[in-house]
Amino acid sequence: MSPPNSNASQKRAVVLLSGGLDSTTTLAIARSQGFELYALTFKYGQRHAVELDAARTVASRFGVAAHWEVPIDLRAFGNSALTAEIAVPKHRSDEEMSTDIPVTYVPARNTIFLSYALALAEVATAQAIFIGVNAVDYSGYPDCRPEFIAAFQTLANLATKAAVEGTATVTIEAPLLHLTKAQIIARGLALGVDYGLTRSCYDPSENGAACGACDSCRLRLRGFADCNARDPAPYVANP
After folding, report:
1. At 210, is the secondary structure helix, strand, or coil?
2. Cβ within 8 Å of residue 106, ≥6 positions away
3. Cα–Cα distance for residue pair 79/70, rounded to 1 Å
4. Has residue 214 been placed in a domain?
């Protein structure tokens, strides 16, 4: 799909949209900053399609200018509980979640996603790429750290024709990077995000209900509790 005709005077952003809580909040922040939204979602071989359905719903609700759903088969490499037949860890302690890199880490996933986003940004003449990584309440992933975002920012403006010729540069925006999960949720609620549309679970049921016990569910539920709010997403049991 080619970028649509749009208002040439409006600034544009490519937003990585998984259908989860963080990426949806990031989409809302980009919209609040006046960007025309180009959503980018990946069908990367993840074991559950529920997040893809959520991403489509969120993109539609936000009225994005365009939504790309790009297939990449990371199952070819496996080595992750999200792309191979490896059990998703449950009921991990805070210490385990903050010190160990879990098997739900997908090797180089954010590097791959940002590379695609960079290509789209150049084609669509977008000024920014938004990604919902977080370095506070996260599961120890190396590609969610400030050092990674800073390094990719440097790469982005060395790797494209537009940047080398000096006609355009792109910034990597990670507005959630230093926020707690509760702060992310509070920001989203203030921007009118309906978190009932989002899905974050690593191991949902066949009907898409969240397990309530994986790292992602535990961090999400604690964020809502710390925010004195109820998570509207469906769970297999009352969390």
Report:
1. strand
2. 44, 74, 80, 82, 83
3. 21
4. no
Tell which residue, 60, 65, 61, 63, has the closest CA to residue 8.
Answer: 65
Q: Are 218 and 97 in contact (CB under 8 A)?
A: yes
Sheet strands (E) in the chain: 12-16, 36-43, 66-71, 128-130, 171-173
Q: How many Å apart are CA 210 and CA 50, to the nearest integer?
A: 10
Q: Which two tokens stand for residue 128?
A: 């920014």
| The pLDDT of residue 59 is above 80 | yes
- Tell me how long the chain is: 239
Is residue 45's pLDDT more than 70?
Answer: yes
Work out the burial of residue 171: count CB atoms within 10 Å of its CB; fewer than 13 is exposed, 13-18 middle, 19 or more buried: middle
Please report which confidence band the pLDDT of residue 231 belongs to, taking 50, 70 and 90 as the band edges.
very high
Tokens of 174: 């990670």
231 occurs within a structural domain:
no
225 within domain boundaries: no
pTM of the model: 0.93
CA separation for the pair 130, 114 (Å, rounded): 9
Which DSSP letter does residue 136 get? Answer: S
Output phi, psi for 172, to 5 deg. Answer: -95, 115
Structure tokens at 9: 């005077």
Q: What range does the domain containing 72 cover?
A: 12-194
> Which residue type sits at 219?
L
pLDDT score of 7: 62
CA dist 64 → 40, 49, 67, 99, 171 (Å): 10, 21, 7, 37, 20
The CATH number of the domain holding residue 73 is 3.40.50.620
